[in-house]
Write a structure and sequence with these properties.
By secondary structure, this protein is of the alpha+beta class. The protein has 2 domains: 37-234, Chemotaxis protein chec (3-Layer(aba) Sandwich), CATH 3.40.1550; 251-313, SpoA-like (Surface presentation of antigens (SPOA), Roll). Helix content is 34%, strand content 26%. It has helices at residues 7-16, 42-67, 83-88, 114-124, 141-162, 213-218, 220-234, 238-244, 263-267, and strands spanning 72-82, 95-102, 107-112, 169-176, 190-200, 203-212, 252-255, 285-289, 292-302, 305-313. The strands form 2 sheets. It has a 6-stranded antiparallel beta sheet with strand order 1-5-6-3-2-4. Strands 7-8-9-10 form a 4-stranded antiparallel beta sheet, with no helix packed on it.
């Protein structure tokens, strides 16, 4: 025997199949991407940017002296992406150097495109490096050896720039032409990519440095200390600065603009002789502090002591 449902029973079935009402005081649930565990905050990225600005500035001087040719460097970007995205943006073939981060674990990747690399090698071999090298091939063992020497100059300045954060010894582990052959990092691992534009005459190219974000996160407390030191230097109390300067020794001189005196006259001076200056008594005297003119005034006497009475300030010199 079939059972026929009433309208009330049908409504009760559909009402029971709807979403359950949320309970009061239920905890909020937010989605979380586990692949972004190694991401670092933007505040720390600013500190990293400052470190590599110093690196680029010093490297420009070092390469210019090493190559005996003007080298212009400019930090064009600093971004946080995955290692697979970094590899996808590289040309093929290219010059890749895998960098050790002693005494810490991890490997950084340094990339230089081939036209720039061959221009640097030409300069090292004695060429002027004026025309760009349009060669697209894998680098040879001899070229790898030359690049090893050049990389020592680059990584020395990189280590010096990082010394303000931590003592890190950057050293080349190996060189390669094909980005996909050696897997030093997981594709989804986050890296900080520092892109540097290099200009040598008519030749320009990019150098890219990819540093694992997890390595930088291990040094988070070092970056926090660096930021605190900079904040301390930026917020100096003038009253405290005045107390610190109270014991500073300064040299004051009152200068008379007299006439010319020969060396013979100076050598023949004896005790009791009078040396006459071509300086009227009503003309102001210059008062200098550490050999810089600061005031204009008059010489006065008080209780057996000579005094310098300031009448006006001397305007600063304009260059």
């Amino acid at each position: 025997m079939k059972k026929v449902l009433s309208q009330e029973e049908i409504d009760a079935v559909f009402q029971g199949s709807g979403p359950e009402p949320q309970k009061e005081n239920a905890p909020d649930v937010a989605p979380f991407d586990l692949s972004h565990l190694d991401r670092i905050p933007k505040s720390q990225l600013r500190a990293i940017h400052l470190v590599h600005e110093n690196f680029v500035r010093n490297l420009a001087s070092s390469l210019s002296a090493y190559l005996r040719s003007y080298v212009g460097l400019n930090l064009v970007s600093l971004e946080q992406i995955s290692y697979s995205e970094f590899l996808d943006g590289l040309a093929f073939p290219t010059c890749l150097a895998y960098i050790g981060l002693s005494p810490y674990e991890g490997t950084a990747v340094f990339e230089m495109n081939l036209p720039l690399m061959f221009t640097l090698i030409e300069l090292l071999m004695g060429s002027k490096g004026r025309a760009p090298m349009a060669v697209q091939r894998k680098i040879t063992d001899i070229e790898k050896s030359v690049m090893q020497t050049l990389m020592r100059v680059v990584l020395r300045d990189l280590s010096d720039a990082w010394a303000s954060v931590a003592e890190v010894k950057f050293a080349v582990q190996s060189l390669s032409s094909e980005p996909q052959l050696i897997h030093v990092l997981a594709p989804a691992e986050a890296v900080i990519v520092i892109a540097v534009d290099v200009r040598i005459g008519n030749v320009s190219g990019l150098m890219n440095l990819a540093i694992p974000s997890i390595f930088i996160k291990r040094l988070r407390h070092k970056f926090e200390q660096l930021q605190n030191v900079r904040k301390t230097h930026a917020q100096i109390d003038p009253s405290k600065m005045g107390k610190l300067l109270q014991g500073v020794q300064l040299e004051f001189n009152a200068i008379l603009d007299g006439g010319a005196v020969t060396t013979r006259t100076l050598l023949e001076l004896k005790p009791g002789d009078v040396l006459v200056f071509d300086h009227p008594t009503d003309r102001p005297v210059k008062g200098s502090l550490n050999h810089r003119d600061k005031w204009s005034g008059m010489i006065a006497a008080n209780r057996g002591k000579l005094l310098f009475e300031v009448s006006e300030l001397t305007p600063p010199e304009t260059k």
